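pls design
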C-alpha cells in the first residue's frame, strides 16, 4: 500500500477546504463512507471522520475497533488520525469536544476563531436534513456548520499509482472471468440444458470472486435478444439463444476499487441486417471516443466524438445516455463524460467510454472500456475482444 498517499490526500482536501471556504474553516466533517475510506483506509460501514489542520479524528463503534486501528496504521496515518471507539453517546461527546478544538487557519497564517465559534464544513450532499438538524441543535450546537459540495470527490478524480494499480487488477480479473464464463457457456447455448441470463451472470460473478475480486463492481447486467433494448436490464430467466446479441455489462471490485466493461457478443452469427449495422455503428462510435480521450480535452469532446458517429446514422435518437463516467471507489464518479461538461481531462483520471444504441422490441448494443488518461493519451485497461462471435 502507498502509505504516503493517504497523508497527501488529507493535505489536498485541506487545501481545497481553505480555498473553498469563506473566511476558512477549522476542519471538514466527512460522513460519506467512500470518502472516509479514501482518506483514511478505513472500510467499515459505520464511521465519521473529522479532518482538522493539525489532526484527524475517526469515530466508530466497537465492532470495528481492531479494523479501524489496523487500517489507519496501514495507511500511514498513526499520529495523524486519532481513532475513537465508543457507543453513539460517547462518539457524540467526543465529536463535540474535537470539533470545538478546531481552529480555522486565517489568511495571514495565524490560528484564530471567527465569529466567536469554531467553523466546520460538512458534506452537504451526504448529510440528510434530519442529520444536519441533529448536529446543529445537539452534538455540534457550539460549532458553525458550513455546507460544502465535492471537496473530497474533487481530490478523488486524479488517481495515484496505487489506485491505478488496483483498478488495473480489477479490470484484469473481469477480463479473465469473462473469458472463462464464455467458454463455460458455449456448449450450453442452444442445447436442451439452456442457459438463462441470470445463470450466465451468476457464473460470471462467481468467477470474478474466484479470481480475487471482493465482489462484483455493481449488479451484473446480462441482456439477451430483445431485452438488450433496455440499457440497465436485470438478468432474468430468459434463455440465451444462438444467433442473437447479448449485452453483458460487468466489473470487478479489488481492494475497494472497481472496473467497468460492456461487451456485446453472440453465440453464432447474427447475420447481416439492422442489428449488425447497429453493432458496427456502436463499434465505430466507441473507437472515436477512445481516440479523443487525452489530457487537455474537454470531457464533452469525448462524448461528442462518440455521439457524432451515431448522430449521422439511422439511430441518431437511440443513444440515450452519456458516453462515460469516472471509475474508482465508486462505479460512477467524476469526471463525467457527457454533453456540456467543459472540464478538461487530466492525466491520471480513469473513465469509461460506452456508447450504445437501443431499439425497443428488437435489442441493443453497447461497447464499453475502462481507460486511464496518460500524458501521451490513454491506456485501455479492459482488453476482452469487442467483436466476439462465438461458434
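designed seq:
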Amino acid at each position: 500500500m502507498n502509505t504516503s498517499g493517504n497523508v497527501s490526500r488529507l493535505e489536498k482536501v485541506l487545501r481545497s477546504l481553505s480555498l473553498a471556504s469563506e473566511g476558512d474553516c477549522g476542519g471538514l466533517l466527512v460522513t460519506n463512507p467512500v470518502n472516509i475510506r479514501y482518506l483514511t483506509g478505513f472500510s467499515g460501514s459505520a464511521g465519521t471522520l473529522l479532518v482538522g489542520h493539525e489532526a484527524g479524528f475517526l469515530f466508530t463503534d466497537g465492532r470495528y475497533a481492531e479494523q479501524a486501528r489496523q487500517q489507519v496504521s496501514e495507511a500511514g496515518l498513526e499520529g495523524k488520525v486519532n481513532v475513537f471507539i465508543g457507543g453513539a453517546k460517547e462518539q457524540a461527546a467526543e465529536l463535540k469536544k474535537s470539533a470545538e478544538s478546531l481552529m480555522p487557519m486565517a489568511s495571514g497564517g495565524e490560528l484564530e476563531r471567527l465569529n466567536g465559534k469554531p467553523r466546520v464544513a460538512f458534506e452537504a450532499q451526504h448529510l440528510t436534513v434530519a442529520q444536519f438538524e441533529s448536529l446543529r441543535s445537539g452534538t455540534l450546537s457550539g460549532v458553525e456548520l458550513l455546507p460544502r459540495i465535492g471537496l473530497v470527490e474533487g481530490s478523488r478524480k486524479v488517481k495515484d499509482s496505487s489506485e491505478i494499480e488496483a483498478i488495473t487488477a480489477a479490470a484484469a480479473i473481469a477480463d479473465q472471468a469473462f473469458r472463462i464464463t464464455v467458454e463455460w457457456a458455449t456448449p450450453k447455448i442452444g442445447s436442451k440444458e439452456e442457459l438463462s441470463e441470470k445463470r450466465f451472470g451468476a457464473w460470471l460473478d462467481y468467477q470474478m470472486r474466484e479470481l480475487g475480486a471482493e465482489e462484483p463492481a455493481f449488479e451484473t447486467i446480462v441482456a439477451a435478444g430483445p431485452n438488450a433494448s433496455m440499457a440497465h436490464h436485470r438478468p432474468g430467466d430468459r434463455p440465451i439463444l444462438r444467433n442473437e446479441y447479448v449485452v453483458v455489462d460487468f466489473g470487478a471490485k479489488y481492494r475497494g476499487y472497481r472496473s467497468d466493461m460492456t461487451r456485446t457478443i453472440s453465440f453464432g452469427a447474427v447475420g447481416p441486417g439492422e442489428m449488425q449495422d447497429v453493432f458496427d455503428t456502436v463499434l465505430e462510435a466507441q473507437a472515436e471516443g477512445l481516440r479523443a480521450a487525452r489530457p487537455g480535452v474537454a470531457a464533452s469532446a469525448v462524448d461528442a466524438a462518440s455521439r457524432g458517429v451515431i448522430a449521422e446514422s439511422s439511430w441518431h435518437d437511440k443513444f440515450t445516455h452519456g458516453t462515460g463516467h469516472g471509475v474508482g471507489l465508486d462505479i460512477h464518479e467524476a469526471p463525467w463524460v457527457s454533453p456540456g461538461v467543459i472540464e478538461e481531462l487530466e492525466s491520471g483520471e480513469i473513465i469509461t467510454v460506452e456508447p450504445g444504441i437501443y431499439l425497443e422490441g428488437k435489442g441493443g448494443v453497447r461497447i464499453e472500456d475502462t481507460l486511464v488518461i496518460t500524458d501521451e493519451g490513454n491506456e485501455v485497461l479492459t482488453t476482452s475482444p469487442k467483436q466476439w462471435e462465438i461458434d
